[in-house]
Specification:
The complex is a heterotrimer of chains A (174), B (189) and C (150). With 174 residues, chain A is mainly alpha-helical. Chain A has 7 helices and 3 strands. Chain A has helices at 4-15, 21-33, 35-60, 67-76, 82-119, 124-134, 168-173, and strands spanning 140-146, 150-154, 161-165. Chain A has a two-stranded antiparallel sheet with strand order 2-3. In chain A, a hairpin with a 6-residue loop joins strand 2 (150-154) and strand 3 (161-165). The longest helix of chain A has 38 residues, at 82-119. Chain B has helices at 5-13, 17-39, 42-58, 69-90, 93-101, 118-136, 140-151, 156-163, 167-184. In chain B, helix 2 (17-39) runs antiparallel to helix 3 (42-58), helix 4 (69-90) crosses helix 8 and helix 6 (118-136) crosses helix 9 (167-184). Chain B has 2 domains: 1-104, Orthogonal Bundle (Rna Polymerase Sigma Factor, Chain: A); 116-189, Winged helix-like DNA-binding domain superfamily/Winged helix DNA-binding domain (Arc Repressor Mutant, subunit A, Orthogonal Bundle). Chain B is built from 9 helices and no strands. With 150 residues, chain C is of the alpha+beta class. Classes of the chains: A mainly alpha (174), B mainly alpha (189), C alpha+beta (150). Chains in contact: A-B, A-C, B-C. Strand 3 (161-165) of chain A pairs parallel with strand 8 of chain C.
Chain lengths: 174, 189, 150
């Protein structure tokens, strides 16, 4: 049986057809028996109806008879004045570079240095550390935040970490 | 028999404009709707949609067929509409006010219809205004999410594909946009 | 500014080279979601390679619900949909001393609310398990595997 507070958070998903069928059926059953949830669905429905109606009213009034001709006219327009554009870009680039060249030269040097650093093979010491670390299959958790009860353990065969985020029923089970 | 998007895209890739025309006719309404939801102006929305189709055709060779054509097209549309909206927001306020009064009509300019009940007309106008206000309070990214979901019916996965963001981001943005819309429309809900 | 084009070419070349080098650095994430329960003894044969590991949990039935693999660039966030409208968000942070540092978050509901957030590292080609959320008549166990060729 789905709780009403939980159902409320799922109703937009139900309304948008984004829930898979078992949960959809369960939630739909709940909605038929719950006046609060029925009202929420009605609100979603009505606001969609009003938005569609307003847009439709305006679009119904649009004359589409010359629409294709409009598209064709745009297609037959000469391609954007690429020469003008390119020369415009060139001008602006030249103007830009004239006083920012030293800045860009420094930036380039930084990029090249970073790339070289990045591509250099790691030192042997680093490789040893890596091979040791690779033995460890556990997750190294830096931070974990949740308002729900949580358990963390490593499964015994491969030591992969399991993070168990329970709900209210977990407390009861424990 | 109606050809699939993929078949039409393949024909477009070999330069078939007639195949592209079919795609345009298939998606023109949806594309204009998305653009309209972001720019709130019919003329601008038409312009954005046509531009999106033109851009799609000229870069159709880059389209990878593992994605669906419409999510790709919507991505182009959303990006162009956001750009258009930004340009518009940079314009002086006076210009924007003038545009709102123009023939293209903003979201508040309802069609005149002789058989419409005047009370309903006023009510619809007010409602349209509130929806516009609610959408205006959203960032373009939030607007795009709610339009793609509520108006176009895209799944979270498709929206994340269109907007190039994660599923979690789609869910958060959708929640926020819905809350905003509902708080503006609480009298009508 | 006669030297500008040459300098521009150098910087461009360096950036291009750096892009190519870094573009090759991907990490493969593998997510398997298992529904563990005490219905009737059952073991999904697709879980053969991890049966010893999952059997440390107190259930007698293990069914693989979904499996997904994705290649991601370092620092990029990737979301995996989990049963029950949950989202598993993983960000591979960096690779050092043969270990892959990950930031993992499980979110539930709409809007997605963080249920658990952790920063940790696992061995390259290693695995990690998360479990405990109730689903249908059982509990979800999620295995996260990460591997890089660096």
């Amino acid at each position: 049986m789905i709780a009403c507070a939980h159902a409320q958070r799922l109703l937009p998903l139900l309304y948008d057809g984004e829930l898979e069928s078992p949960l959809r059926r369960e939630l739909s059953r709940h909605v038929t028996d719950c006046s609060v949830c029925t009202r929420t669905v009605a609100l979603l429905n009505r606001s969609q109806e009003l938005l569609c109606q307003t847009i439709d009213d305006h679009i119904d009034d649009v004359d589409f008879s010359g629409f294709w001709q409009g598209v064709e006219a745009k297609l037959s327009q000469p391609p954007p004045f690429w020469r003008t554009r390119v020369s415009g870009w060139r001008e602006s680039w030249l103007a830009f570079w004239s006083w920012r060249t030293p800045v860009w030269a420094t930036a380039m040097a930084v990029i090249v240095l970073a790339a070289v650093q990045f591509l250099l093979p790691p030192s042997p010491q680093e490789q040893v550390t890596k091979s040791l670390v690779s033995e460890n299959n556990q997750a190294q958790i830096e931070s974990l935040s949740t308002s729900n009860p949580v358990l963390v353990w490593n499964e015994p065969t491969h030591h992969a970490t399991v993070i168990w985020v329970g709900d209210e029923s977990m407390e009861e089970q424990r | 028999m109606e050809q699939s998007d993929w078949e039409l895209v393949r024909q477009c890739k070999s330069g078939d404009r007639q195949a592209f025309r079919e795609l345009v006719e298939r998606y023109q309404r949806k594309t204009v709707a998305i653009a309209f939801g972001i720019v709130h102006d019919r003329e601008d929305a038409l312009e954005v949609a046509q531009e999106a189709f033109a851009k799609a055709f000229t870069s159709i060779q880059k389209f990878k067929e593992e994605a669906s054509f419409y999510t790709w097209l919507y991505r182009i549309t959303v990006n162009l509409a956001i750009d258009r909206q930004r340009q518009k927001n940079r314009q002086p306020l006076l210009d924007r006010d003038d545009q709102g009064e123009g023939e293209g009509g903003g979201i508040e300019a309802m069609p005149d219809s002789a058989d419409t009940d005047p009370f309903e007309k006023v009510k619809d106008k007010e409602l349209g205004e509130r929806i516009r206000e609610a959408l205006d309070e959203l960032t373009p990214a939030h607007k795009a999410v709610i339009l793609l979901r509520e108006v176009e019916g895209l799944s979270y996965e498709e929206i994340s594909d269109v907007l190039q963001c994660s599923r979690g981001t789609v869910m958060s943005r959708l929640h926020y946009a819905r809350k905003k819309l509902q708080s503006r429309l609480r009298d009508d809900l | 500014m006669k030297s500008s084009p040459a300098l521009f070419a150098c910087v461009f070349g360096a950036l291009l080279w750096a892009t190519v080098v870094y573009a090759g650095e991907m990490v493969e994430l593998r997510i398997e979601t298992v529904l563990a329960s005490n219905d009737s003894p059952y073991f999904d044969t697709r879980l053969e390679d991890i049966w010893r590991q999952v059997s440390s949990t107190p259930y007698n039935s293990y069914r693989l619900m979904q499996e997904e693999r994705r290649k991601v660039e370092w620092g990029n966030q990737v979301d995996f949909s989990l049963p029950g409208g949950r989202v598993l968000q993983v960000v591979p942070k960096h690779f050092a001393s043969e270990r892959i540092a990950l930031q993992v978050m499980i979110m539930e509901g709409a809007p997605p609310t963080p249920l658990m957030k952790t920063a940790l590292s696992i061995k390259n080609h290693g695995t990690l398990f998360f479990g405990g959320r109730r689903h249908q008549d059982g509990t979800l166990i999620i295995r996260i595997g990460a591997a890089t060729d660096e």
